[in-house]
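Re: [help] complex structure
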Amino acid sequence: MKTMLNVALPKGRLGETVYQLFAEAGYPCPALLEKSRKLTFENPEAGVRYFWVKPSDVAVYVERGAADIGVAGKDILLEYQPDVYELADLNVGKCRMAVAGFPDRPVSQTLRVATKFPNIAKTYYAAKGRDIDIIHLNGSIEIAPILGLSDVIVDIVETGKTLKENGLEVLEEIVPISARLIANKASYKFKTDAIRTITDSL
Amino acid sequence: MLQQLAQNLCGLYKTYGYQQYSMSKFEEYDLYLQNKDFLISDRILTFTDTDGRLMALKPDVTLSIIKNTQTQQQMLQKICYRENVYRPGKSDQGFREIMQIGLECMGAVDTYSIYEVLLLAVSSLKQICENCVLDVSHMGLMHRLLEDMGLYGTVQKKVLDAISHKNSHELQNICEEANVAPDALVALARLCGKPAEVLPQLNGIFGEVPELAQFRQLLTALENAGADCINVDFSVVNDMNYYNGIVFRGFVEGVPTGILSGGQYDGLMKKMGRTGKAIGFALYPDLLERMQTCRQQEVDAVLYYEACAPVEDVAAAVSQMKEQGMNVCAQPAGTGTLRCTQRYFLKGNEVRLLENDA
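Output below.
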């Protein structure tokens, strides 16, 4: 019997793109693409069991062994620093983590930074020796500088359209982001061949 | 079950000449302040003692052992322990009390001592689960390679971090920026296999250096002793300021994280003013809770009795069942159940078997 790998996929557009990669690499599970409320999908011949998970939760499932492998954005990995192996850069879901704000704003002593990624923001500004006031928000971060809640934001930027439409622009790029294949460290020890094979074929 | 395991392990270590060391729950906070980087977390439970000293509930055992034993290089001190340490839980959970079982071999440590410690690590894992893996790496080899490649400071840290995550693509980026060839490091990150298949590759990566000769000698000896669960994997990375030689991490099937962690830490000995070397490991049995095999029955038998049953009848039935060697929990009919092997019902004077849960 083939070793079954539990694979956590991020719900949403990225997850569907990533699933195509797995399918083309020889690990299809067509039932997954049907519109249903099912949460787990198996293909015993290929040795995979997929499940949909909130993107920011993939790392938790993999770290705690509920999933052997998973796909998570580098932004999630940098923010939560899960104790997992990062086996490959899948080169999809490409975007960047950036500081954005109004281009001509005067800069206050202690920069007020609104963000969904407080750890990334803290690390970035600490490396610059800059003291900041972090405002942890959960969504629609772009509104913060417009309403005067913050001076700048640290957020993911894809096309930059949302920023532009609100009069904001990218001030500094922090790091490029893309989808990464991660693996549970213990699973890697006991299912080495299965995990290596699937990594190499992607 | 964990108590039994602790007893078995300390018993095992004693057969190799280890003495069990018991220590105080508290140490001066200063001890940990001076050696912050050796600890897993810098959050420590502290309190002010009656004499005004700032004390800490131990987050670690090794530092206490080094401090309280005056080991020098001419002696060989072999100490084992079973202690509770106090560490913050994951993700903003509060402090927790965690059981730590382990051993330290200090002073005149040589290749044989290192071999014996590794053997005990393997035996400890096997006691828990036949299906286990001991990942083995060598910080001395890593250190030499990175220095030879001219990688120091922040870059060195980044490289070690990437290797610990098996992050080959990040290594490629770092090497590109530092203008060095990534091949050796990428090969190291990918490495994961039995000594027999991996050792030939290591020569190509590190060259024929003394550390590799020792590494090879240890792995061969362990293989000859029947330790078949050893895995060479350089993603085991410990702080090079403290760990200068072999480092290792143990896994058992069914537990998603490593449960055993150890290595040779001459650097820490030196920092604490001791001459002589040291090697040891620690095991965290609390992590075994999640293992399937841990879920045993809580009691052999549950005996239900009716509300009208006389006390003497219940007592007689319980007594009879206990004489048959069972653990019995007598409880009124209709109340909740412990996990048990069998359930019985007392009707009048008769004990009837209800169902088999096994």
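The mean pLDDT of chain B is 90.
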